[in-house]
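Re: weekly structure request thread

Next one in the queue (523 aa):
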Amino acid sequence: MNIGWREHPKRWIILLIAVCCIGVGIWLSLNRSEQPVPPPVAEKQAEAEAEVWLTTGDQQNLLTPQKPIPITDQHDADTSSSDSTTPESEPSPSEFTIQIDSDKTYQTMDGFGAAMTGSSAHLINQLPEEQQEQLLKDLFSTEGLNMDMVRHTIGASDYSVDESGEASSYTYDDIESGTDYDMEHFSIEKDQEVVNMLERVTGLKPDLKVLGTPWTAPAWMKYGEKTTNGWYLDYNDPQVYEAYARYFVKYIEAYQAKGIPIYGITLQNEPEFTSDKYPSMSMGAEEQAMFIRDYLGPALQDAGLDTRIIAYDHNWDQAVEYTSKVLGDEQAAAYIDGSAFHCYAGDPSAMSEVHESFPDKNIYFTECSGGEWSPDFGENLSWQMSNLIIGAPRNWAKNVLLWNIALDPQGGPTNGGCENCRGVVTIDPENNEITRNVEYYALGHISRYVRPGAVRVDSTQEQGQIENVAFRNSDGTMVLVAANTGEAEVSFDVVMDGDSFRYVLPSQSAATFRWNPKTGVER
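Done, posted below.
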């Protein structure tokens, strides 16, 4: 043996390896039942987590990422809770469950953002170049809010200025006297600062959606006093309506030529209110229906434009009556995509009323501004989350648009309108300091995580408890936006398809949760 081993060492090594392998195989077969391999799905479930971002009313958290929450099987979570909870630590009666049903779907979301007014564009343009770039990235890229929609004023609004920052009222077809039915004097030149800014934004966000709204028609088109501030179209002259339809077509084409496609237009900002202090014009419901039916709809169609025509664009409180007359006109409705709403009177449920009456027409939320009349951060956060960020989508809105993207510390520069409104950010031209306001954080809870094409899905909500709205993104990820508008923290469970997680939300706070469901698509 000793001699054979020395003469044939490789044979002995091979024999030794074979014996070891047989021994290991026998040991594994004997011990297999003691160490089961978990199924792949169960392994994935055990490792599932929900990402969380939190904003609190005391501003200690501002869209701050939190520790991810483990997602567990609901039965296991209930068993674990009952096994480990003493009578003293039982959930309080205020705790409840948000049930999400991802199979029950509602509207598809188009985007979130604010208005690039003349004042906003001017303030951003006054910043040093590097700071401009950083702010635009903060607003329109994944580095910040990731806004994908802006509202644009067709001509001047109550927040329009010239290149020096002075108040300026104008339209795209201003003439000293007479008429210009053929739009020979049409020009967007006075919009140049806004055009330049939107061109930069579309460079960051090529699929940016721009929603255009006029505050007034050219003064020469109006009945009575020829002014941009107030009055209404000259209903005695059909050529005025033909010219005004042509005005919209030329606006869309002019902006498209600059690489800024116009996603949609509303006919008139706040059509049931006028002011002699800033550009404005009234347009009754019957007149709006007639203008769309007989002039604007055919004009866009003849021009080969697919820009959406959106009716109304005023407060919740007058919405049902006004839209019933416009959308109730079947010939006009054939050209109309939906209706738009503001926040300054009434409540979001009006949008659901309109949807119930006209379920084939879309709902848009297009304006709301905070201001110095309500300076408390926590109260503002609660109101905006409840009524806008959560309330608008829960009442069928496909989008959420706030008012000015940026204003200065005095709420300006203005053109005769609100003197104490607040922008999404405040830019101080004296020192170039930029302040992110409560509107920034409220908007961020949805704009950063719910992407265009996301579908709202069903989620339960109890009166006086956590307000919430849920979405499924195109990539399969789920998003839940929740707000505690009360004065005490609330513990709640989120349950979907047998999976659940628990969270305690402080008073006057908002949270966004994002996770991959077990049937979802990997991010």
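The radius of gyration is 29 Å. Residues 121 and 346 are 30 Å apart (CA to CA).
Next request, please.
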